[in-house]
Amino acid sequence: TQAVIAAIPVCKAPRGVAIDKGLNVAVIGNSHDNTISITDLNTYKVTATISVGKEPEGIAVNQLNHTAVVANHKDNTVSVIDLTSYKAIGAIPVGKEPKDVAIDPELNLALVVNEKDYNISVIDLNTYQVTGIIPVGQKPQAIAINPETHLAAVVNEKDNAITVINLNPPI
């Protein structure tokens, strides 16, 4: 119908959003409250508010295991949240001013855009450890991953360019 069916209040200054298709919930980053809101898209109600790091922005959801990875822009971490139990699994240190995050569910990797370091942190979501740093262009802003080809694209604001990253393991 292409019509608004709900307007759901969350916390202050919502920025990032991602959807868990299996659970049918939206995960919203509330940048001024340092929280995320989990909103049930069946009932249109906030079902949980969970504390994360400072100024959450980019969010990605692993559809296979129902976890969210949240880029905390002002404390240089990402938070990992279990969306089935509404519990924080932990905080992982990354580069300066993480802005966005994307997940390759098959490789179980999260890639985090570090705006001030001009790089990407690669996180193994089996161990919750940073396993690599990949340099990209100047002032990276956003990232997306094709889960079939395992290629990532990063937009770099100051270069007016994208960086393409092959995530496939070496043969």
How large is the share of residues in beta strands?
over 45%
- Helix count equals 0
How are strands sequenced across the largest beta sheet? Answer: 1-2-3-4
Total E-strand runs: 15
Low-confidence stretches: none
Mean pLDDT, all residues: 96
What share of the residues lie within helices?
under 10%
User: Major β-sheet, in short?
Assistant: 4 strands, antiparallel
Question: Which class best fits the helix and strand makeup?
Answer: mainly beta
C-alpha termini separation: 48 Å
Spell out the helices and strands N to C.
EEEEEEEEEEEEEEE
Radius of gyration, in Å, reads 16 Å
Shape: globular
Describe this structure in words.
By secondary structure, the chain is mainly beta. It is 0% helix and 57% strand. The chain has no helices and 15 strands. The strands form four sheets. It has a four-stranded antiparallel β-sheet with strand order 1-2-3-4, with no helix packed on it. Strands 5-6-7-8 form a four-stranded antiparallel β-sheet, with no helix packed on it. A hairpin with a 4-residue loop joins strand 13 and strand 14. It starts with 13 loop residues before the first strand and ends in a 5-residue tail after the last strand.
